[in-house]
Amino acid sequence: MLDQLEALYREALEALEGASDDEALRGWEREYIGRKGKVTLMVRRVGELPPEERPAFGRRANEIKRELQAAFEQRARQIEQEKLARELESGAIDVTLPGRPVQVGRLHPSTQTLRRIYDIWAEMGFQVYLSRDVEDDETNFTLLNIPPHHPARDMWDTFYTTRPGVLLRTHTSPGQIRAMREFAPEPIRVILPGMCYRYEQISARSEIQFYQVEGLAVGHNIRLTDLIGTMSDFVRRLFGPERKVRFRASYFPFTEPSLEVDLDCILCGGKGCSVCKHTGWLEIAGCGMVHPVVLRNGGYDPEEFTGFAFGMGPERITMLLYGIDDIRYFWGNDIRFLEQF
Ligand code: DAH
Q: How many angstroms separate the alpha carbon of residue 185 from the centre of ligand 1?
């Protein structure tokens, strides 16, 4: 029976050579290696052999089945190639035609700016700390030195949830409390990026959702001059070494003193234009020395520790970098806007 099998094997190989199109190939498959194919049926007859001959037969039968399967697949590829070559020759495919352009995705402009911001702060030793979007009133306001009914709460129009005391964060500042409570009493240098939400009229200048990047450094002997030097360095790394930076006194409940950071208008260079509203300066961040109350709420002794904090808006920075005049483009999902970046 082994001889018969070998003969069948040679016959099958020869027949395969003769199969020259898909249909013939399918026919061959059915005739030899299909469920009712000749080879398959013969292999099943192993039981008719005397027991001592069965292992040798079985081994060879498996080999043959494998080889026929491989030969079949190779022949199929060959036939496919030949078909393609014939099509090319007959001119059905014009290989000189330019290819169709592939649509590639890209990063959202806010994401690109966020990543530039991360890189710069990382070079200065700041780690990224991710805090939550859904906050409690206590952390978003009270622990940041903004008690209930304090008029400063008017600075942030808030989306409340149906759960009392649960809201969407209006700024990334509550992340300061969470980071401090996790790391105190170790010194920290973190940035806290994330989406913020405000219950506001959408306009060219304000959106109900936008990114912020918060920063926080807490340690021994951190001074106002450290804040001013660090912020100036950041601005020049992002906007270019030739930029002028200006600090103005401001007010935030969680910092004392509080400052606002301006840079000379990238568009007019300080002469005055519509982008800088004829002031020659662009506002790009709020900052200050962490208020002692906030330090204490974070778990640091304000007699021993000091720190600075800042908050900036990547959309606003992107608008300045690219001269975009309407913040609504960012979440409008218009491909004509997005594909420019
Ligand atoms: N949280 C402020 C806002 O949403 C921005 C800000 C200002 C953050 C000063 C700070 C800071 O950390 O020191 O308007």
A: 23
Peptide bond into 253 cis (omega under 30): no
Q: 146: Cβ below 6 Å to ligand 1?
A: no
Fold of 109-338: BirA Bifunctional Protein; domain 2 (3.30.930)
CA dihedral 301, 247, 175, 196 (to 10 degrees): 160
269 close to 294: Cβ distance less than 8 angstroms: no
Average pLDDT, the chain: 92
Instruction: State the distance from the centre of ligand 1 to the C-alpha of 79, rounded, in angstroms.
Output: 69
Strand partners, 166: 136
- Per-residue pLDDT tens digits for 306-333: 999 999 999 999 998 888 888 999 999 9
Distance 119 CA to ligand 1 centre (A): 21
Phi, psi angles (nearest 5°) of residue 51: -50, -40
Spatial CA neighbour of 12 closest among 94, 88, 57, 71: 71
**DSSP strand pairing (209-219 vs 188-197):** antiparallel
Residues of the chain with CATH 3.30.930.10: 109-338
Report CA torsion sign: 296, 300, 303, 308.
negative
Q: Which of 131, 135, 154, 171 to mutate to test the pocket of ligand 1 (most atoms within 8 A of CB)?
A: 171
Rounded to whole angstroms, the Cα distance separating 305 from 69 reads 76
Cβ–ligand 1 contact at 191 (below 6 Å)? no
| Of the listed ranges 91-95, 125-129, 197-201, the one predicted with least confidence | 91-95
